[in-house]
Amino acid sequence: MLKPENHGAGPEKNGHEPEKVDISAGFEQSDVKIAGILVFITALSIFVVVTAVLCYGIGKVINARMNREDGPNSKWTKTVDIRQLGNLPNNPAMQNKVAELTQQFPTPRVQVDDGNQDVADLHAREDILLDHYSWVDPGHSKVRIPIERAMELIAQRGLPVAPAVQTTPLMTGESAPVIQTPLTSGFARTAFEQEEAQAQAHEQEAGK
Fold first, then answer.
1. Are 70 and 77 in contact (CB under 8 A)?
2. Residue 66 lies in domain
3. In a domain, 75, yes or no
4. Tens place of pLDDT for every residue, the chain, 208 residues?
5. Cross-strand partners of 147
6. Which of 125, 123, 146, 92 is nearest to 197 (CA)?
7. Is 49 part of any domain?
């Protein structure tokens, strides 16, 4: 006679009794096995140290290659210790110091705007040369005079007469070129400079 199989018998089928856990204490009574924790911490420490050494070595190799390609400092390069600037507080003295450092870099520099200020600065330097006396050469043998004074001298003395240019006779169907007087002198203030001049005029009027 066959006996029915006991499908509900799990551990009892193999002769092993389920482990009974005493929960009356309310906490784990066995000790924690720290061997695995120590192995993990040791492996993590070795990984961190090896990674730091590799990063330091790679950085040294990259810096050595950049220094070899760039070469020593010259008039085109300048090493600046930016740590002296601190956190760049918003004060005029620190901003002037930053401006001095940036102005030491030779031209051409990257434009921080659309170029209006550069054109205005160029015209300001030209105005200084056109409206004041200045030396042309370091030896002080030639002097540059204001344009108004130059125009007065030209009106008094006249321009030197150039020798007549010998022209060849015109061919059949050709005509002599006609030189038209330009509408302007070739110089005009930009809109940016005109707006700045108007703003300064308004400030002067408001100050009065």
1. yes
2. 33-70
3. no
4. 444 455 444 445 555 666 676 777 677 777 777 888 899 999 999 999 999 999 999 999 998 888 888 777 666 666 666 566 555 556 677 667 767 766 666 667 677 777 788 788 888 888 888 888 888 887 878 888 888 888 888 888 888 887 777 777 878 778 877 766 655 555 678 888 888 888 888 888 888 7
5. none
6. 123
7. yes
